[in-house]
UniProtKB/TrEMBL annotation:
Pathway the protein takes part in: Amino-acid biosynthesis; L-phenylalanine biosynthesis; phenylpyruvate from prephenate: step 1/1
Protein name as annotated: Prephenate dehydratase
Residue ranges the record marks as coiled coil: none
Gene name of the encoded protein: pheA
Ranges of residues in domain ACT: 206-283
Gene source species: Lysinibacillus halotolerans
Length: 289
């Protein structure tokens, strides 16, 4: 598929969310369409309302975004065609009408991942203030902008503060300095995003289940990769939702799925009784800081 055909891109919005910034950095000239939730973004690309969707997959402090991983395994037949890594800085913001009153904040709104990234700050500084989970950081900022009379705050980025005309009253409130989020670009087709300057890293994401009641099955799976010198950059398990103790594994391998060693690995995994689902091979992009 030629890149000029990929012109409608869904993202977790509204405008100014971290996902928006990641999407805009990779697709500056395309039509970006905001959706309220991750499942809505995934559904939009699955039903071909859009060509691609960009959603968060993993954060350096909070780990995997379960909704994204679980939808990719259980609900959708999609491929990852690129990943974008973004630096994340969280700030506390209020309506400009409340800027001198912010020590009396009564409620704080943000995306659950953003609240969790600032857990220590919020706990020590605003321990009695209720925290409300919202669909995104920018949706929380928009809510604050629509309520000038309420002394409420949002946690989010500087773009949200600018877009919704809010006052940042405390900067960099995330608990750990190294805060990055990994976003993935999803497509119905197993294509590779072309024509953009990538970091030069190639990655393949695989989801697999182990054969039942086989001792050492995970060890066998890891040896399939190990003797071929295929470098795993991530392994994680998620519940299969069929019972306690039932899991699927997500593995990222730093290689192209079309390499002979990778093809051999997939064949061997299947012969061992694993189910293997590849989400495709893709490149890594960075958003400018
Ligand atoms: O709320 C946003 O701004 C998002 O784009 C979502 C999201 C996430 O799901 O992790 C993205 C990056 C940050 O880690 C916090 C929130």
């Amino acid at each position: 598929m030629k890149e000029k055909e990929l012109n409608k891109i869904a993202y977790l919005g509204p405008e100014a969310s971290f996902t928006y910034l990641a999407t805009k950095s990779l697709f500056p000239n395309e039509t970006l369409i905001p959706y309220t939730t991750i499942p809505e973004c995934i559904e939009a690309v699955s039903s071909e309302k859009v060509d691609l969707a960009v959603v968060p997959l993993e954060n350096a402090i909070e780990g995997t975004v379960p909704l994204t991983i679980d939808y990719l395994y259980h609900e959708a037949e999609l491929f990852i065609v690129a990943e974008v890594l973004s630096k994340i800085q969280q700030h506390l913001m209020v309506h400009k009408a409340q800027k001198d009153n912010w020590h009396n904040i009564e409620e704080i709104y943000s995306h659950p991942h953003a609240l969790a990234q600032c857990h220590k700050y919020l706990f020590y500084r605003f321990s009695k203030v209720p925290l409300h989970q919202f669909s995104s950081t920018s949706a929380a900022a928009k809510l604050v902008s629509e309520n000038p009379d309420r002394c409420i705050a949002a946690v989010g980025n500087t773009s949200s503060a600018e877009k919704y005309n809010l006052e940042i009253v405390e900067k960099n409130i995330h608990d750990f300095h190294f805060n990055h989020t990994r976003f993935v670009v999803l497509s119905k087709k197993n294509i590779r995003l072309q024509g953009k300057e990538s970091e030069g890293k190639t990655k393949t994401t695989v989801m697999l289940t182990l054969p039942e009641n086989v001792s050492g099955a995970l060890h066998q799976v890891l040896s399939v990769y190990a003797w071929r010198k295929l470098d795993l950059s991530k392994i994680e398990s998620r519940p299969l939702k069929t019972g306690l103790g039932d899991y699927f594994f997500i593995m990222d391998i730093l290689a192209d799925e079309n390499e002979p060693m990778m093809k051999g690995a997939f064949e061997e995994l299947k012969a061992l009784g694993c189910t293997v689902k590849s989400l495709g091979t893709y490149d890594t992009y960075l958003t400018p800081e």
